[in-house]
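Loading example: each entry is read as two labelled lines plus one structure line.
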Amino acid sequence: MNDTEIAQALGTTEPRVNTDDALARFQARVQTEGIAPVAPVARARLTSRWLQGLAAAAGVVIVASALTLSGVAGSIFQIFEPKSVVAVPVTQSDLNYLGQACGGLNLQECMGAYGTFEWTAPPQPKEVQSRTQASAEAGFAALAPTSLPSSVTGNPRYGVVNRSTATFTFSADSTRQAAARQNRTAPPLPANIDGSKLFITGGPAVVQIWGAPTTAPGRGGQGDISDIPTLIVGQAKAPTVSSDGVTVDQLRAYLLSQPGISPQLAAAIRAIGDPSSTLPVPVPAELAISHPVTVQGVQGLFVGDNTGIAGAVIWQKDGMMFEVIGSFNESQALAIANSMR
Amino acid sequence: MTLPARDPGHVALAVSPAFESLFRAEYARVVGIAQRVLGVQAEAEDVAQDVFVSFYRGHPADAPYARAWLHAAAAHAALNALRGRDRRSRREAAQAVPLEATAADDPAVTVAASETRQEVRAVLARLPDRSAAMLALRYAGLSYAEIAAALDVRASSVGTLLRRAEDAFRRELQ
């Protein structure tokens, strides 16, 4: 087959597009879905917030993976097990709202605004000395990149998070009290949600970090700029959430009824085709872009802006969640991800 | 700013002049890249809309990398759509093909052409992402320099990478 034949094989009739119509369609979609253009922010100011945003995106996977189910009641049915990941743009107004809702509280305290969160087996991260040891501790083969860009040097440090478990019980009283503390009126918690439980599972997880400080936190590390890792590779058993009553559609409807959720976030949440198998990854809408990519033969998600300041690839395969994070552009991040063996 | 008055059903435009200019300059190219992968213009236009939305949401219209970003995103988004389509039922795919079957009135010829197109798309879906994207970009008419910018490779490497991609394509197609 020569070049001409390839061209014919790949060829279709040249598209005759109507750009005016296409632009009108684009504009209508932007208006309908409330899609805002990126804010014109000086790039130099982005760096630290960038990394914070990416850390937040990564944190969802890690946190979700660090939660695990222990006791299982007979009436429990599984409502969430991610088969794929999808970006959910979170605007500054969403963050402001969530910040007010949580008031600087940690995850457990923040979720306390809607009920009772309880670790039944809390995550206990620990450092191990080798990938072999990490695999043995985690109970699965920890994959590692076989190809690294020149900016990543030295040996990684290894961390393992055990399989831990948590339960969450919805409470209409807690919801009302939390809203009252913010001088807000929360939508009433539906009766079938009040008192129902979620059983959250995830992990174990293995994290490999290149360029991490050699002095462990709490033992004299100063945490300066040189402490920022050059590459983080995470791998965890996919988290699951089971319920003894509430369905994922009911939870989604309740979330969307909350005051302060931006149209962009609401549209993105509504757009998740199958919320029972899709892990939403919050991406700061003003600072980061994200789009689906093919990684390791499956569909994953790239988060970054292709400038090389920072980028992350997140994907799910064979019941495991993976992520590669560092100061890379898309092709570099994908090359690392695809080299994992 | 509004669409030209001659356009029926015009809507008020809120996008910046810079974005509109970029959209007008690159829309056909983005659709062309996606169509090389998907083979169906309607799907390619859907992909193009998604690509421009992603760009609009995350990048300034006058970014120096705008064109390269759009080209790469068109190829990758179309490949993802192709693989998603492949995962759906064969029946749906079979229904999609006749939409652009244009040549023959002879049903046997039409079926053969449809099968070839399906096979070509299946091969693209199996190729490594960069190889498939490279073929889509090249056969959509991008120059080596444009491909290099889109896929973040050296321009001097494009020829070699393209030959490898073509070889892989031929092997898979046999």
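The longest strand of chain A covers residues 84-90.
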